[in-house]
Structure formats: C-alpha cells, structure tokens
Amino acid sequence: MLIGGQPHRSIWRDAKSGAIRIIDQTRLPHRFEIKTLGDLEAACEAIRVMRVRGAPLIGATAAYGIHLALAVDGSDGSLDAASDALIATRPTAVNLRWAVERMRAVLRDVPVDARAARARDEADRICDEDADACESIGTHGLGLFESLATARAGEPLRILTHCNAGWLATVDWGTALAPIYKAHAAGIPIHVWVDETRPRNQGASLTAFELREMGIPHTVVVDNAGGHLMQRGEVDAVIVGSDRTTASGDVCNKIGTYLKALAAHAHDVPFYVALPFSTIDWSIEDGVAQIPIEERSSEEVREITGLTAEGEVASVALFDAASPAANPAFDVTPSRYVTRLVTEHGVCRASRAGLAALRASAPTSD
Ligand code: MRU
C-alpha cells in the first residue's frame, strides 16, 4: 500500500544488502522511521515493544528472526533457542507460533550450513503469501461491501473498525482494511469510523495514518463512541481483524472488540472478522477458556504519547502512579456475535462447520 504515494510493505529485505527492514510503528504517525533488524535479539525486541505488531506481521518478523539466528549459528540448538525466544515475545497472536513451526518443519532436514539461506527464502515466501492472502481477503470482503453499498444508494458506506488491521499489521493490504481498499478502488463511496483503540492507540496512530495516505475518508472516534453511533443508525457494518480464531469461530482480537460485537448484535449491524488461515488455531474450540490473553505493562495505560506544540514527540502521565492499572491487550468475541468470517479462501459462518468447509476447499494443506 502507499506512503507518500509510493508503494510500501511493512517488512522487507533490502534488495542490495539483504538486510531486514521494518517501519518502526512506535514512531508513527508523527515520525516515519525505518529500522534494520540485525540479529535475533533485534527481531525479538521489535515484536516485544511493538515496533512491528499485528498478528500476520509478527509471524513474518519471527520468520526473519529465525533466519538471522541461523546466519550466526545454523545448529539445531540455535534453531531451538531462536524458536523459544521468538515464541516468548507475545503470547496471543497464533501467527507467531504458526510461522516458527513452519520454519522448523522446513529447516529440520536441511544441512546446517545451508539453513540460513533456506530460512531466508522461506521467510520471503511467508511474506509474499501473506500479501497474496490479504489481497484475496480484500476481494472476498468487497463482495460483502458491494451488497451493503446497494442499500446505501450512492451514499457513503459507513464502516467502523477497531485497532489497526491494515497493511501495517500484515505484510501488505491488511485484513479488515483490505476490503475497504478494494471498495475504494472499485469506486464505492466509503467512510470509516476509526476507533482510537486505547491504550496503544493503533486506530488513531496507524489506521488513520493508513487511510489518510490512501485518500479514504475517515473519522477518529473514542473507543466508547461505537455503541452510540450504531444506536443512531450511523454504522452499516463493523469489520475487524483477529489475533487468533478458534476452530469453532470464536475470535480473539484487540481489547474492546467484544464490546463492539455486543453493540453490533444489539443493533443488527453486521459484524465481520477478516483473517488469513494462518490466524486460525485449529487445536482449540473455546476461545474464552483457551486463548492466553497478553497482559501488558500498566505504563501503557498510565502514559500517553503525542506531539507537542513544539513538534516534539513526548509522553505524559494521565494519572498518579499510586493508582494501579491493568492492561489486558485482547478479548474474545464468541462466534455467535460474528456475522461472517472473511478469509483468503472465501467467506463463511463463524462456526466449526463453516470453517471446516472452507478448509476442505482450500487449495493447499492450510
Ligand atoms: O497489539 P497489536 O497491535 O499487535 O494488536 C493487533 C490487533 O489486534 C489486530 O486487530 C490483529 O492483529 C489483526 S491484524 C491483521
């Protein structure tokens, strides 16, 4: 997708030097900084502090992290240690484990001195496949938006989204934002309500940035506004991404998603979840009971970062450190509140049967 009119990915390998580059998302939208991931520890740190974030992107970063570790030491011990270190960075998004397991399966039988190159090629493949999958999600989601747009008779389709599930959260295109990009390109008038997404403000900082760069009309709202907007008939559909979806269609996503789903259910607003198959954890059924929810630092709740009048990026405290703060980063929306899942292999009901049918029709062993 575009920054300053130029096509960009969120992670890439430098064509000349082979270095792994990322956009440092902790600096957006006020600063655009590119960072090089020079070794395994840099990859782990980037995931941990959320220089890269979003389920598909942390999977892709982990794949390059394995490559970086094997470039120093291609042994089984190095592969095991790198896998453990990467998986320990963040617990909820299953793409991280998916990518590490895929790399291990590919590398197991490769001679030690050939592993780094093979890991690099596989990480490249993961990135390209993710970009293709997300573009397909966009195409399938466009079909849903076209139906809704007909009812709007030329008035803008009003879509609400939570967190950032755009191209910055994947390698390219995004999940929830991919159908929005496709709809915009197809000439469907669209307006996006962007939840600010406290405490890390991925909506205000990243989704609004993406939409602005792509020329898509949008309005940032506080997280508590969604119910009000839906009650007044100002939202035609909600679409979000996912960090882990169970085999029965329960959806884990950024904290606050569940409340949006409840409000959408109460007001008959379609609630769509867009995700690649790499986000499905086929080994579990009950999202509320079985998905580990990341608890992040209370500092993220207490402090807020922004641009001062002098143009400096600065943090301020919102409340006294003597008041404890809790920071669960994700929540689970049970499948009964999800209208449809939108994947690269098509659209289905959020149910075991719906997902199983799509899986059976998928061209590979996804
Ligand atoms: O904590 P984050 O910013 O990594 O959380 C990201 C989300 O919750 C996204 O909605 C999810 O990863 C889907 S991204 C395509």
Describe what you observe in this structure.
The protein folds into two domains: 127 residues, Four Helix Bundle (Hemerythrin (Met), subunit A), CATH 1.20.120.420; 224 residues, Translation initiation factor eif-2b, domain 2 (Rossmann fold, 3-Layer(aba) Sandwich), CATH 3.40.50.10470. Helix content is 40%, strand content 19%. The longest helix is centred in the middle third of the chain and has 38 residues. It has twelve helices and 18 strands. The strands form five sheets. A seven-stranded mixed β-sheet has the order 8-7-6-9-12-17-18, sandwiched between helices. A four-stranded mixed β-sheet has the order 13-10-11-16, covered by helices on one side. The protein has a three-stranded antiparallel β-sheet with strand order 3-4-5. It is α/β, with parallel strands linked by helices and 366 residues long. The model has no long low-confidence stretch (mean pLDDT 97). A hairpin with a 2-residue loop joins strand 17 and strand 18. The site of 5-S-methyl-1-O-phosphono-5-thio-D-ribulose (MRU) has 19 residues, from helix 2 and strand 11.
